Amino acid sequence: MCTGQYKRKDHYYKLAKKMGFRSRAAFKLIQINKKFRVIRKGDIVVDLGAAPGGWSQVALEAVGEEGFVLAVDIKPLDIFKQNNFAFLKRDIFDEDIQQEIMDLLPRKPNVVLSDVSPNISGIWEIDHAKQISMAERTFEIAKEILRGNGGFLVKVFQGRETSDFYTKLKESFKFVKRYKPQASRTRSSEIYIVATKLKGVINRG
User: Fold this and answer.
1) Do the domain assignments include residue 205?
2) Are strands 68-73 and 44-48 parallel, antiparallel or unpaired?
């Protein structure tokens, strides 16, 4: 007999296949965006850790033809054949990545998404530390490239370093909220932090 966790996993996996999404993670972004409206029509969106592309699919639908989505990942990604989509194959820790991102965008982005995760070792302290390091890096990128009042959505694994990271986000954004979408597995330690209205940035393109 299946537990509720696996029933839900099967539900979102099957639903993703049925609806043509590249991953069941697409439903996490759908649920988050429905609640917080992080992505809006016409937005420029950067999707960090985009492979296999589920979040980029959702973002493309949310921004519409007037918007633009740039997917970034060290892994290869089958490119969506749309004029308002681009893919950058790079590591988020590359020093020049911010400039490379901006070179591919029509203007500074409204939103930066990060569903980045490390390769899981099974040793919790190591996995948590690696994931927080990746979240910190995506936060650095977001602060440098976002428009004023822009938004940042990032996955973190709950642990001893999560609160400090949350506090850093509150220093940079006017609205910060932890959220666990229904599509996340019940026993998973992952949560998402929604941060909007970036402070102190003057919009100049």
Assistant:
1) no
2) parallel
